[in-house]
Amino acid sequence: MSLSNIINIAGTGMNAQSIRLNTTASNLANAQSVSSSEEDTYRARKPIFQVLQQAGMDRDWSNVDLDHDVGRGVNVRGIVEKEDPLDIRYDPTHPFADEEGYVYYPNVNVVEEMADMISAQRSFTVNVEVFNTAKTMLQKTLTMGQ
Q1: Count of CB atoms situated within 10 Å of the CB of 51
Q2: Which of 32, 34, 39 lies closest to 103, judged by CA?
Q3: Alpha-carbon distance 16 to 77, whole Å?
Q4: How far apart are CA 55 and CA 12, in angstroms?
Q5: In whole numbers, what is the pLDDT of the chain averaged over residues?
Q6: Distance of CA 42 to CAs 17, 101, 129, 134, Å?
């Protein structure tokens, strides 16, 4: 595996974690938004990651070719809405209450979102460190002949 592959893998990891951070920030921003119907209520979103080119998953690993048989990074395959139930509260005095007096809040768990945010931030930081280490190694390799 070349250092340029490592830089590309770290770059895809940083991109994926940026999307994860943006999704989490959107969930937190809408955590207390209200609606008068179940259909119009915001639902928490989560990104789905996919390994790029995961060739060789079911094979003999004794003769692995690192340039062709390992993953090439991560891709965000899509962003899905969580299926957790909405938070429905009875508050007939609320301006957004429906005919029966219920107000609909998103299915956003703030504690879970904060944990996701910390995890994504740390994963992003690790990818930055990998990127910087590979870049330094490439620069030192170029100066070896001087």
Answers
A1: 14
A2: 34
A3: 10
A4: 18
A5: 87
A6: 22, 19, 36, 41
CB count within 10 Å of CB 104 equals 22
Q: Domain locations in the chain? A: 1-31+45-75+108-146, 34-44+82-107
Half-sphere exposure of 91 (CA within 13 A, CB side): 13
Question: For residues 42 and 102, what is the distance between their CA atoms, to the nearest angstrom?
Answer: 16
d(CA 18, CA 52): 17
Can you point out the beta strands (E) in the chain?
Answer: 45-51, 74-81, 87-90, 102-105
DSSP state of 53: -
Token readout for 65 is 């070719």
Residue 86 DSSP one-character state:
P
Q: Which of 23, 37, 38 is nearest to 81 (CA)?
A: 23
pLDDT digits (tens, 9 = 90+) for 103-123: 999 999 999 999 999 999 999
pLDDT digits (tens, 9 = 90+) for 71-105: 688 889 999 999 999 999 999 999 999 999 999 99
Tell me if the pTM is above 0.90. Answer: no
